[in-house]
């Protein structure tokens, strides 16, 4: 069974390559569907497969850039990417990310980086999960009220509408983002991207997990456009991160390419699935993924206070993340296949 | 003008070098860098790749940054062909909800 293992030229470790493809497929599906890089899934996955943590992070970022490019191409064809918005947001993202990075070094110097990052991550995930499910609850309440009043339910209606308040701020220059259907001050996406970039820099993540809901709830993008535009951002930040990590010898390109084989397939499935699953379906699934991530971070925090529970918590966190990736991937794939079948059947019916 | 350029280069270099600290933050302490890749057990392309790394990190980085998008585009185009062959419409999507 030696052929199932490949010797990594830089890291010098032997890796089970089918595992890399499976991981690539899973994260490709989820990343293409939710519009995120998926570092929170891949890094522990690569670590389990035998990569040292530094290589796991670097390789993850390198593969993330390629995978996001594939997903962006697909979403771009569906008209889900607002390139203008993406380019405006790069300014804020880079500035915010670098300030976050500087803050991390400062926190490292005063010796409190670990607890600050973990607790901040936890609070942020809880906030995102609350935001998503609160939004769903508000939308349902609005629908119930419309039905009770005998009015027709607006299919394009949303729950939380904070973005409408932000759109009232008319500080020049104003921009018209045609794909997203937004007319707002350019400072809104710049400010939002600055804060999401800052948080990503502090937390050491790509930022898709934060940027996607921020695009929806603060900037006011439709869900599909938020997913596509976020992937465009992830692609650029991924390439930047990949260059930086490669220069420091922390990227195993061979592993990233093997993962890309799986991710290319997965990204197609995830991106095409957004065609068949409604905006709120994506939001609910995203909320569940965030809850899973929240629990896994919590499990990693417990051993800091109860060291004896380290192994138990580690196993549960790993099983939870891998189980979540598997369950989500299966759900998205099934929905994509069902939708594609219906579409092909409808086409044949017309002919 | 020259001093402004120097300052910009200095700031950009500092920012560039600070990125890994940020990325590594979520995962605890950063691991030591691999200075020399062990290419003794490798053959063919793998040995060439490890040697490229040993000879110049700059060339190695440039190759990686070029290869990632190229491979991404290749896989993307390949998948396009497959999807088109299956019969999935890749050019339009109904706006079903906000």
Element layout with pairings:
The complex is a heterodimer of chains A (351) and B (98).
Chain A: E1 5-7, E2 14-16, H1 17-34, H2 39-49, H3 53-78, H4 83-109, H5 113-148, H6 162-167, E3 174-177, E4 182-185, H7 187-203, H8 208-219, H9 223-247, H10 253-273, H11 279-305, H12 310-350
Antiparallel strand pairs in A: 1-2, 3-4
Helix pairs in contact in A: 1-2, 1-10, 1-12, 2-3, 3-9, 3-10, 4-7, 4-9, 5-11, 7-8, 8-9, 10-12, 11-12
Chain B: H1 2-25, H2 44-55, H3 57-86
Helix pairs in contact in B: 2-3
Characteristics:
heterodimer; A: 351 residues; mainly alpha; two-stranded antiparallel ribbon; two-stranded antiparallel sheet; 12 helices; 76% helix; 4% strand; globular; B: 98 residues; 2 domains; 3 helices
Characterization of the model:
The complex is a heterodimer of chains A (351) and B (98). With 351 residues, chain A is mainly alpha-helical. Chain A has one domain. Chain A contains 12 helices and 4 strands. Chain A has helices at residues 17-34, 39-49, 53-78, 83-109, 113-148, 162-167, 187-203, 208-219, 223-247, 253-273, 279-305, 310-350; strands at 5-7, 14-16, 174-177, 182-185. Chain A has a two-stranded antiparallel ribbon. Chain A has a two-stranded antiparallel sheet with strand order 3-4. In chain A, a hairpin with a 4-residue loop joins strand 3 and strand 4. In chain A, helix 4 packs parallel to helix 7 (187-203). The longest helix of chain A has 41 residues, at 310-350. Chain A starts with a strand and ends with a helix. With 98 residues, chain B is mainly α. Chain B has 2 domains: 1-31; 36-98, no CATH class. Chain B is built from 3 helices and no strands. Chain B has helices at residues 2-25, 44-55, 57-86. In chain B, helix 2 crosses helix 3. Chains A and B meet through helix 3, helix 4, helix 5, helix 7 and helix 9 of A and helix 1, helix 2 and helix 3 of B.
């Amino acid at each position: 069974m030696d052929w199932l293992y490949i010797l990594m030229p830089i890291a010098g470790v032997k890796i089970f390559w089918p595992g890399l493809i499976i991981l690539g497929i899973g994260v490709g599906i989820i990343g293409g569907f939710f519009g995120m890089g998926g570092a929170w899934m891949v890094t522990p996955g690569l670590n389990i497969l035998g990569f040292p943590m530094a290589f796991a992070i670097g390789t993850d970022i390198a593969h993330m850039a390629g995978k996001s490019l594939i997903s962006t191409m697909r979403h771009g064809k569906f008209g889900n990417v607002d390139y203008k918005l993406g380019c405006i947001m790069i300014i804020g993202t880079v500035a915010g990310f670098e300030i976050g990075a500087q803050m991390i070094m400062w926190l490292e110097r005063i010796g409190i980086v670990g607890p600050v990052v973990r607790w901040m991550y936890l609070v942020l995930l809880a906030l995102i999960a609350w935001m998503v499910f609160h939004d769903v609850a508000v939308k349902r309440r609005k629908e119930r009220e419309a039905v009770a009043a005998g009015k027709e339910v607006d299919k394009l209606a949303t729950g939380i509408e904070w973005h409408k308040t932000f759109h009232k701020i008319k500080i020049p220059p104003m921009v018209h983002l045609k794909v997203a259907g937004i007319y707002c001050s350019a400072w809104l996406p710049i400010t939002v991207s600055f804060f999401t970039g800052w948080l990503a820099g502090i937390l050491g993540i790509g930022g898709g997990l934060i940027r996607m809901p921020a695009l929806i709830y603060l900037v006011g993008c439709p869900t599909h456009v938020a997913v596509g535009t976020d992937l465009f951002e992830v692609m650029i930040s991924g390439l930047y991160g990949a260059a930086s990590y490669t220069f420091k010898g922390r990227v195993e390109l061979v592993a990233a390419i093997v993962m890309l084989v799986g991710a290319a397939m997965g990204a197609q499935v995830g991106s095409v699935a957004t065609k068949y699953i409604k905006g709120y379906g994506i939001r609910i699934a995203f909320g569940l993924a965030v809850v899973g991530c929240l629990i896994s971070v919590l499990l990693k925090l417990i051993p800091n206070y109860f060291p004896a529970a380290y192994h138990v918590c580690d196993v549960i966190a790993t099983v939870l993340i891998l189980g979540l990736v598997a369950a989500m991937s299966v759900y998205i794939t099934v929905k994509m296949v069902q939708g594609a079948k219906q579409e092909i059947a409808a086409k044949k019916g017309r002919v | 003008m020259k001093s402004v350029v120097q300052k910009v280069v200095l700031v950009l270099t500092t920012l560039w070098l600070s990125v890994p600290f940020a990325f590594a933050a979520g995962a605890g302490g950063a691991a030591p860098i691999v200075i020399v890749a062990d290419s003794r057990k490798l053959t063919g392309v793998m040995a060439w790749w490890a040697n490229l790394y040993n000879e110049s990190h700059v060339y190695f980085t440039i190759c990686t940054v070029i290869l990632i998008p190229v491979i991404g585009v290749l896989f993307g185009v390949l998948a396009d062909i497959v999807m088109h062959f299956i019969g999935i419409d890749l050019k339009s999507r109904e706006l079903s909800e906000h």
